[in-house]
């Protein structure tokens, strides 16, 4: 990629005056960068400043932000509700994302290896992508209906095969599991598509060479497929983890954090602190903890996958 | 190589695909099934597996409900405005990133741009709420368009850069030799080649803006509510009218689904950040 661009630089310099070409790219990039900076980076820096302040603008006596050092963070780390949401996140993110990526990988490989007709493959890939196009909020509504404790289709079907059904959405772990199922329905397609693309781009000649050398199917999988897909699997994990940190819409509609506050996830809790308790300083501190957590997870994961690859 | 063992794998793999296909399709079917049923057949045991007495009442309700229609229209305006702006700005920036390596040394600038997507949006929702209050942008269409534009730009820029990278430089050089200016070369040579990618990028941007909830919930008021903001409160009276809600769900899920089917190759490529080419 970079080599083609460099050669363009060299060759274009011959034809077109440098002065004009120096200005053009800046004019092209400028609007996008300025917009993103103004609407993303600026507010984020302001929220960093707010996280070191106490500010509850909707309380009866309106007050300006007042500096209170690390007070918000100290509050946060001693707050049981925050830790509950963090534990929920570990369960939801750890189990949910792992299931999604592994299932997506298995499905992608099965689809590529065991479905011969191209039209069927493309049809299925398109079907698997449909849930991703539906608003998460709408998907939440659909799953809320499916999981209604009495009269929902899921319990109805469980009932028809002789199970008494599960009290979905009425306890912490079942509620989180319900969110996970809805999220899996919507998002397995992403790892699936990524891995499918990766598998399709492994040249057949690698497998042929392995077969000539008498490698078993299992050995081919271990020595060719997995190493070739490793980076893409890591990317799928990272993308899904980033989304897990942002998880809001389905939670908002399916459980609203309930029963009580038991199924809250960090982003939802931030919303409660910010927009129903109107404690802006604390909410800002929360957003920064979530943001740093998200970046840290990504870096750790990337590091882990890369050392794995070099062994 | 057709041993019993590989056969077992083959049928296990196909079985998994069948089960998963049913898992994906069932909620879609159930949404339509519920939307076409009379209310008396919803929430029964055993569940009514198909509508007995096919009804269009729920769809009539959605299409004659002024609140739902207004919200869908607002969503349309916001999504379309966002799409046009973000694809113009994204294509310009993507072109520059692709053709002038010095504005993107080592790919750091474009990566920085993409990385802003990784920070949870809730991080900016509080400041935006107050800033918008100060600037009078709350409850305005332009306010939401500006926000969605920003959230879309990293992706549109990244994808457009990718699509431009796939067009060989020599095409432009040939145009320069023929005496075209850069703009003419872009318009007559590059643009027609990049159009499929551009369309897919537009569609993804549109779908994102169409489906967004958190910021719409915070920023919009009575004048600009989008369809996502009315879904949580729609008909929450004593008995939930599930057939109406599912009809609404079917209506609002139709445009993105049609977009996916029409542009599936490029959409799938775009959804995976250019990694998958079916």
UniProtKB/TrEMBL annotation, chain A:
Coiled coil: none annotated. It holds the Pfam family BPD_transp_1. Keywords: Cell membrane, Membrane, Transmembrane, Transmembrane helix, Transport. Its main location: membrane. The chain crosses the membrane at residues 26-49, 89-112, 124-143, 173-196, 224-242, 283-302. One of its GO terms (cellular component) is plasma membrane. It is found in: Cell membrane. GO terms for biological process: transmembrane transport. Residues 86-301 form the ABC transmembrane type-1 domain. It is a multi-pass membrane protein. PANTHER family: ABC TRANSPORTER PERMEASE PROTEIN (PTHR30193), INNER MEMBRANE ABC TRANSPORTER PERMEASE PROTEIN YCJO (PTHR30193:SF37). Belongs to the binding-protein-dependent transport system permease family. This is Sugar ABC transporter permease. The lineage of its organism: Archaea, Methanobacteriati, Methanobacteriota, Stenosarchaea group, Halobacteria.
From TrEMBL, chain B:
GO terms for cellular component: plasma membrane. Keywords: Cell membrane, Membrane, Transmembrane, Transmembrane helix, Transport. It comes from the Archaea. Residues 72-263 form the ABC transmembrane type-1 domain. CDD domains: TM_PBP2 (cd06261). The chain crosses the membrane at residues 12-30, 71-97, 118-135, 141-160, 197-220, 240-263. It holds the Pfam family BPD_transp_1. PANTHER family: ABC TRANSPORTER PERMEASE PROTEIN, MALTOSE TRANSPORT SYSTEM PERMEASE-RELATED. Belongs to the binding-protein-dependent transport system permease family. This is ABC transporter permease.
